[in-house]
């Protein structure tokens, strides 16, 4: 009986482990090209599936990542995402891609991807990158300086960042383990939420002067 119980537990683990480690559900067909209307489609993982017989090569194609993007914003970077929203063939496939352009002293400020692990490759320039572990792990910082050809991984859900510390613009490409990984920018989410978080909450949370909190909320107001 004991051996039977052990076997049952192991069998359950074998069945559930793939579900627990997968960011997106595995497809049950060759592909599921995302469409925005239910006509002749089935709703799967956030998108309706186009009839496979109507799919074309263009459903699996995206062009333009060779082009530099402007970096004249406040943080000095620009993220170009290729995900299920602009490459519908990615629907249910559990992967997406971004190009990140950094101006001199530019950064991709601290943020998280709630649904994806990210692996980043430096194509041009020099970046300081890092991620911070969860509270239970002591909020440890893992950080490296990356040069052209270097790769770094940011675990799913953890706060991470990249900063251009070189003397010229930088470019990186990153793959993410979700067709739609999502992004939560720390500063603009906390101080720029709509409606605004009660300043008293932020004053205590960040141990800041009330005026400083109000200034930040006005700065990040959408």
In short:
Disulfide bonds join 32-49. The protein has 222 residues and is of the alpha+beta class. The protein has 4 helices and 13 strands.
Radius of gyration: 21 Å
The helix tally amounts to 4
Span between termini: 62 Å
- Tally the beta strands: 13
Q: Any idea of the CATH class of the largest domain?
A: Mainly Beta
Structural class: alpha+beta
Domain Cupin type-1: 63-214
Binding site for oxalate: 108, 113, 118
Function: May play a role in plant defense. Probably has no oxalate oxidase activity even if the active site is conserved.
Subcellular location: Secreted, Extracellular space, Apoplast
Description:
Strands 4-5-12-7-10 form a 5-stranded antiparallel sheet, with no helix packed on it. A 5-stranded antiparallel sheet has the order 9-8-11-6-13. Strands 1-3-2 form a 3-stranded antiparallel sheet, with no helix packed on it. It folds into 2 domains: 57-182, Jelly Rolls; 191-220, no CATH class. The protein is 20% helix and 29% strand. With 222 residues, it is an alpha+beta fold. It contains 4 helices and 13 strands. The relative contact order is 0.14. The longest helix is centred in the first third of the chain and has 20 residues, at 2-21. Strand 8 and strand 9 form a beta hairpin.
